[in-house]
Write a structure and sequence with these properties.
Structural class: mainly alpha
Order of helices and strands: HHHH
Distance between the termini: 38 Å
Number of strands: 0
Largest sheet: none
Length: 94
């Protein structure tokens, strides 16, 4: 029904939207006194600005997602769905 390219673009955009939601929820939770539980992320945030880290992560997710979709579309779909569950959890924690 839809071409592979359209499906890849859709899931790449959805993954990017989830990353923007992650950006918003992370900033909101941290400003409210929450803590970052991911040690890797915590270490990066100590070195660079939080917004810079989140901007780079969002751009990288979009780039990798797009190219991954053409190599292994089911993996892009699974990654997007999994990330969606994480964002739903973050939204509940607001």
């Amino acid at each position: 029904m839809f071409s592979e390219e359209i499906i890849v673009i859709f899931f790449t955009l959805l993954l990017t939207v989830f990353n923007v939601v992650d950006w918003y929820t992370t900033r909101t939770i941290l400003k409210a006194g929450g803590i970052e539980k991911n040690e890797f992320t915590k270490a990066i945030i100590r070195v660079v600005n939080l917004d810079l880290y989140l901007a780079i992560k969002t751009a990288l997710a979009a780039y990798v997602g797009y190219h991954l979709g053409f190599v292994h579309l089911p993996m892009l779909i699974a990654l997007t769905v999994m990330y969606g569950f994480f964002m739903a959890r973050n939204l509940r924690n607001l």
